[in-house]
Amino acid sequence: MKTSQGANYQSYRGLPTLAGLATMAEAARPGLSVADCVARLKRYHYAFLRLHEILTARITAEPIYELKTGFPHHAYLCAEHVQALRTRVGEMREPPLGLEEIPHPALEIFFDEILAAPTTEELLVGIYEKALPALNAALQRHMADTNPLTDAPSIRVCRFARLELADMIDFGTKAIASLVDEKARTAMASWLALLDDCLAAAGRLDGTEQPTGKTISRLHSAKSYVYDPVPRRDERFHDLHNQGVNPEAFLYNPDFPPRPKALMMLFKRLREIDVPEMMASIIVQTKGKPWGYYRDMSRQLWDEARHAMMGEVGFVALGVDWTQARITHNWSLRLNTECTPMERHAVLYFIEQGLMTKTGKRYEWEVGVESGIPLMATIQDYDWADEVLHAALGREWYIPQFGNRKEAIDYGDQCWSRILSNWTEVRERGLTQHENWWPRIYLQACENWNETPDPQVLAYSETYENQRADLKMVAGSA
Ligand SMILES: [Fe+2]
Ligand SMILES: [Fe+2]
Fold first, then answer.
1. H helical segments located in 91-119
2. Cys staple from 50: which of 5, 111, 160, 370, with CB 3.0 to 4.6 Å?
């Protein structure tokens, strides 16, 4: 009997076998057929697709800032895994891919129910205790069931997805521990049982069990979900219509020194929390685009959430309580309620291509460097890089809808000009007194810098009142 066969098989001088994928014994198990593998992959794809949809749709009206910034992150991660799974399915003798088909009606109900969850608590538990763990378990099963050699490319997709699923579940578990008490959990018990029934009726998320055949009656999704375009904020955000400080006029005034300008830039960064609120509406309300559109828009949305968090971390690092500023929602509220999705995209593109000039993001980075605050230089350096990417994404997805670039920019220009200043109106309606919050922010920073406030800087009181009637010259969020 030859010693190099069967159980006694030896690799050359004991080297790792099979390119490090598996042992001979592991790879000698037949595993999943291509058809079974693809059927499962399509279910993971559907799950990530629906999770991306749910997380995006719930950004705008979610008041809690930590969730409003967390959902964009997770929506983006889901979008990347959708992309990876689409690519993998496309490699599996599969055209037509059938990726738009719903793998099982009970799975559709499962995700519809979570999308329509009436409270933040239910939404969190639905996503992070039900959907993501079910998906994670399915991917783990895939890795155990499939042949590690023949299906190595799928295993790689599963492994990468599980890394990020673990991060998402960790975030969600902590969020639930902070926000969901026993009372809320008891109140949602029957709904959670319904979610379990859905998964069982679908033969688990991956279809590896016999479906129970149980008919599911919808609860939250009995009426179909309607996206809520009105941005909401938690209690740390107040006076949401305030236009009492014009940060752009300060930033571009050569008489003011760079350090207080850095503070104004942090305000502008944090105020960018209105961009995810607005971009979510474009993504949710624009149907029928190629998947690449949704992936790229979700990347940009996530970048904008990061820009807001850069503002937050900058303020915290300077010992400034940002809640003393007025992080308003004017921009997202007005675009979401007064413009079509196409008009909103046009305004976004119009603003972002305007940032590519010498007075745009380059200038902000230069001010960051001159401020002598190293973190400011880092923030503006990356913010600039992100905006260059966003301008490129606009060229890819926005411009081609028009005859040429000029037409596309003119359209954005017109859309933006149609949004007229509501400075007087919001004051007359009693929504704000346009209070000047700047001294409170500046004085805190001076204390931290151990510096006597500059009287001219402290007295800054230019508001948005004397802006031209259309908001075009007001640098919007991007
Ligand atoms: Fe941007
Ligand atoms: Fe931005």
1. 105-115
2. 111
Report residues near ion ligand 1: CB below 5 Å.
Answer: 387, 390, 478
Task: Please give the distance, rounded to the nearest whole angstrom, from the Cα atom of residue 303 to the centre of ligand 1.
Answer: 7
Mean pLDDT in the chain? 95
Closest CA to 133 of 80, 201, 192: 192
Summarize pLDDT for 40-79 with one digit per residue, the tens. 999 999 999 999 999 999 999 999 999 999 999 999 999 9
Q: How far apart are CA 136 and CA 142, in angstroms?
A: 10
Ligand 2 centroid vs 355 CA: distance in angstroms?
10
Tokens of 234: 């938690």
Q: Are 234 and 121 in contact (CB under 8 A)?
A: no
* Torsion angle of the four alpha carbons 301, 303, 309, 310, in this order, in degrees rounded to the nearest 10: -150
Helix (H) or strand (E) holding 239: none
Q: What is the separation of C-alpha 114 from the centre of its chain, rounded to a whole number of angstroms?
A: 18
Convert the pLDDT of each residue in 111-140 to its tens digit. 999 999 999 999 999 999 999 999 999 999
